[in-house]
Give the backbone structure.
Amino acid sequence: MIETATLPTIPNSPGVASVLPFLYIAWADGLLTPTQIELIKTQIKAQDWLSKEERVQLCGWLDPTNPPDATTYYRWVRAIKEAARDIPDVSNLPLAELGHRMAGIANVGGSTEEATRALHDIEAELGIVGHEAVRELVVQRPETDVRDEVEQVDVESVKSVLDGRLASLRDRLRTLLSDPAFTYPDTETPKDEMREIVLGWTQLLANQGIGALAYPKYAGGKGDIEQFIASFEMIAYHDLNLAIKFGVQFGLFGGSIRALGSNEQKRKYLPDAGSLALPGCFAMTELGHGSNVRDLKTTATYDLSAKEFVVQTPTEHDHKEWIGNAAKHGRMATVFAQLVIGEQSYGVHAFLVPLRDDQGIPMPGIRIADSGHKLGLNGIDNGRIWFDDVRIPRDNLLARFAQVSADGTYSSPIPSSSRRFFTMLGTLVGGRIAVASGGLSAAKSALTIAVRYGAKRRQFGPSDRPEVPILDYLSHQRRLLPHVATCYALNFALHDLAQRYGQTPEGGDLRQIEAEAAALKAMSTAHATASIQESREACGGEGYRAENRFAHLKADSDIFTTFEGDNTVLLLQAAKSLMSGYQQEFSNLDFFGLLGKLGEQVDFRLGGVNPIKRHQSSTRHLLDPELHAELFQDRERDLLISASRRLKGRIDDGMDSFDAFIDVQDHLLTLANAYAQRLVLQSFQAAVDVIEDVTVSDLMGKVCALFALWQVEKDRGWFLEQHYIDAAKAKAIRAEVNTLLRELRVYAVGLVDAFGIPDELLAAPIAVRG
Amino acid sequence: MIETATLPTIPNSPGVASVLPFLYIAWADGLLTPTQIELIKTQIKAQDWLSKEERVQLCGWLDPTNPPDATTYYRWVRAIKEAARDIPDVSNLPLAELGHRMAGIANVGGSTEEATRALHDIEAELGIVGHEAVRELVVQRPETDVRDEVEQVDVESVKSVLDGRLASLRDRLRTLLSDPAFTYPDTETPKDEMREIVLGWTQLLANQGIGALAYPKYAGGKGDIEQFIASFEMIAYHDLNLAIKFGVQFGLFGGSIRALGSNEQKRKYLPDAGSLALPGCFAMTELGHGSNVRDLKTTATYDLSAKEFVVQTPTEHDHKEWIGNAAKHGRMATVFAQLVIGEQSYGVHAFLVPLRDDQGIPMPGIRIADSGHKLGLNGIDNGRIWFDDVRIPRDNLLARFAQVSADGTYSSPIPSSSRRFFTMLGTLVGGRIAVASGGLSAAKSALTIAVRYGAKRRQFGPSDRPEVPILDYLSHQRRLLPHVATCYALNFALHDLAQRYGQTPEGGDLRQIEAEAAALKAMSTAHATASIQESREACGGEGYRAENRFAHLKADSDIFTTFEGDNTVLLLQAAKSLMSGYQQEFSNLDFFGLLGKLGEQVDFRLGGVNPIKRHQSSTRHLLDPELHAELFQDRERDLLISASRRLKGRIDDGMDSFDAFIDVQDHLLTLANAYAQRLVLQSFQAAVDVIEDVTVSDLMGKVCALFALWQVEKDRGWFLEQHYIDAAKAKAIRAEVNTLLRELRVYAVGLVDAFGIPDELLAAPIAVRG
């Protein structure tokens, strides 16, 4: 029981009552400057309808250097609040009118009309929004919601558009991963324990035949790499450790045998790889050779007398590094090494090297160290491997692209060691598409959490309404919704790419798919990093709580921009591919074979930009998909030609092609990003075109327009520089983006619901007060 | 011992020998397209100087559908390599010339002149850079460095410029934090253990008097908040957990007593706060009230009979959240609550509330829960606190800005509850400056690691030189060096701000400092997040290793963009402050008092942009600091006026000021960012102006120019839209940025060395091969 104290009441002077709202405003919230307070004082002194005593008292309360005491102030506040109870529609009154009414209640005599006019004059001179000040004071802000501006989205229809032709496989994985067997462990689970949990989950996936999907039937699979990539994408909704463990075992280790092995080797190893009976590694990266794999140092030398390969790590620093499955679980590894026969090196080849025996003891000559604690993905047992005089049978050379006969004769369907190497790497491009898709899933998870939170979490608001959901803020919409639109765009582009990759016949030309995969992997994983970060920040402190997933999403996805190809290197390679019309082998960064093709690009004449179109900025025009396609295509073509010119000019002037390449790298990166965005827009627009349901198609069209215009807004510096748009159009585009954001705001929750991420995988929904 | 196999040698035909380089190039590396191979074949068929047999054999090797076998290919390679040994200056020869010499070695007869001319023609038509192809083949790439393009930077001089007037304090902390007592624990140290280690470190700092620096002498301090902030900045080089623990105890808990307490309260509590004898908390944030503190829910009601305040958490969801020191170590808390006397609420006030007794048992009515595992900062014991009928003495109201007498009479030097609240918050602005400075330290740590790594790590390169350090890549320079320049810029701006804050007399107007602190805190912490991410990615996989610091830097700094004010909210507040000419109280997001000031802004006439200047793009002009200052100032002023117009237009049309505010948020954020950048550039330029050493001054001038032009390049869309620059100038600016990057490349390591981060605090330097 708390005993209360009360405030003394205010003297019942009608003149004072009519000026009270101004007294309040003078001292409240720093609304008025000292000069403005003086202004009120001067006005009051001149009011004849106030008595002399009233004027003296009022002016005493309007001395900027000597504020009234707190008790007096609170008496005004109470008097206004009490009077307001009896005044209808009080929250829409100007200050002067409120004062007038209060004076009436206080039973004022004298010229109220004169008084009111004077008060109105004062209010106008102060230049404040009086009725909002009144509202702030007298209206109790409601706690509960008064409006719920959410439009229903046909979530199932949108989801089926996103899921595409593999919808049933995706749903199967959603159900599987929601099973209690996949319940997340405590967020503080130590590394060693986490590794075993992730291994257990991987075994469950293997038991369901998910790991073997890309393998032939005899290995329990369906020979369908597209399904394998789709599975990886869904698994990434659950846990990125699991996705990577799954990818290492079935995609990299098993996948290398699938892509590089002879039929005999596939029959021998793939069933055990797919069932996880043979846990394996993909040992390519060395400490000094991540991006430049062609120059890696490990050797496999053919010993003619023993008919064996001898695998050797030349120096202490040339060990294999960051090899998944190596520190603990791997029994065998696909090891990439320079094949040497006699004095001749034949370039990088892949060899199957047993790592551990059945008891898990490393084989003779093999030394393994734990890569240790990492920024993320601590459920993966990355390790370092050194080979010292490790002997393996001649049959362990993966034999699809090269064989060594017993007498040491080398043969290959591809004569050039470089071309052979790039062809071998090309067959592994599925891993890159998978990583791009997994990054996209991580982004979708983060945005789902953040958009749902933003629709519930309230902070600040106008005085007479509840605090507003923070997703009502334009600033919040700008930080989240374009990323949601980009998820949609990438979703279609990556599904397209996986499908075309899956449909490429064995031995078919993969160079264009490689270039696209490189560009999209870079775009998707950079987008993941950016949108997970935005989402965490958009959830404020609650986003920092480990159980809310951002900790894992951030840490575990961070390396996606680096592995399966460093994003910067990939973009440079994609640019090179583009400049050669996809004729160049991928993965190398020399340019000396490019000149001929560059000449063709340079000779291409750019058409002028239509000056009317440059200025056109009606909503209809700005939302036209053809405009978006055109801007994206023009940008890419223009950048391709200008980059070719700059590169060729330097080489013609005698610059080494590598130095010339370095000199124009900023240009090449811009080109590659424009290329990625064009690919993605193209897929998104094509997907929208075939939607039959008009409501869904309209909504998707808007999301696609948001993606396109947002990119143009971000890159408007370039479009302005090249005169594709003028200043007025640039501003109109920004305004149109804002309009789209406001329109899509009400669909936002539905748009992320349509990603179809099971609640179990989003873990604890973020707490919101009340 | 490995027994070797050998390759059969190639037939010694001079005609074939002369064409060998072309055969090699046709099949190597995918350099030629099938069409180009056909071209060679056609040419060869026409060469009379070749015998018919030679032509048949050569054409057989030039069938795109039927490549030569691998053995043949390797024989060519070996033949070229062997011949090359006897040819001087072989690596600069065109293919044709190489062929000619090889034929000579093979003792060719016939018309070598005709042959050579024909080969030259073929080479020209192929459009490849022949001598580079030769070099790639015959030159063994050297492993060790042949050039070491690093310029000496006078690191000590630059460091002393950066350290400024508190250099000796900074050096003292560098020495202290390098002491073995501050050695990092294992990166996998569990949360509970880490909390105790961090507490121990904090005690060591307290023992040195560092925690009390801002307190009066009687509390062991120097009354110097600038020194306190500088210490925080240095501690953040060591560990962000320690910095935050230090900040919570001495800055927030002790600092709230220092800023809000009466002299008596300071004497009573500050000595124990500064020595860590009394570990404390700063309990402001509630689950539902992070940014909007003024509306928080906890109440402190005065009980007249008991002469006590009763602290109460109204509902389960109104608990204090994320309170540092609460879960484990805190004994007392500064609790922010709505003060209620009788029926009247007087707004938010701060109260000292004992949390635990000497044994660490929570006091009656206090319930504490651990906030649990977080994304980062797991060395901080964040907790939740609920108060149920918790009674504290009347004296525990922090009494500088408000007192309650025994009979329940409230008094305050500031009558308005809002203004009082904002004034109270204003006194705590030091925390915001400290967090901005700590974020900057984290960015400097990350960039130091990444730049040093980039200067050592090599990958790819021209064929005749060692692989190049990745910092030689323009793309790598663009990702790191502008961030280094931004660190320099922020360094000067934050030191300036801390100094001016420290020099503000007690009771002085802090509104401009608050606005600057908000803008710089947002800029510095966003920059930290971005540059730590860039740095991690720039170190590739090695950046992912936990011991290389990025794991901690990323995770622990992540929340810096949220706490001490959410960055978006801070930027909006700073924009509001600017629009009111710093006359508005900070921290609130209503705008209804702003109209008068908006009117002034709107009436301001913009001068036209000089069309000559818009186009001017000489290097001298582009590097002129006056140009930079002008562009930054013009942008801020222009955005201020246009934002004011848009806001006023909406309010004049009858829109609620809050809705109008939401409607122009993108504009306000742009304004606030422009404001922050102008402040930072101004400080940086002023700092460069007073450097006496010409070499240092020149170097700093370039770093400053890089910062300025980089920002203009990034924001060139805006500058183009508003016609401050034209397209040609925009392109010239980008070119100038690239030139500056190339120039500064050789100073890069020196520039980060000058941050002066002790090696001990950078932990393990990243491994580089060899």
User: Anything to note?
Assistant: DSSP finds 29 helices and eleven strands in chain A. The two ends of chain A are 26 Å apart (CA to CA). The first helix of chain A runs from residue 14 to 27. Chain A touches chain B through 163 residues (CB under 8 Å).
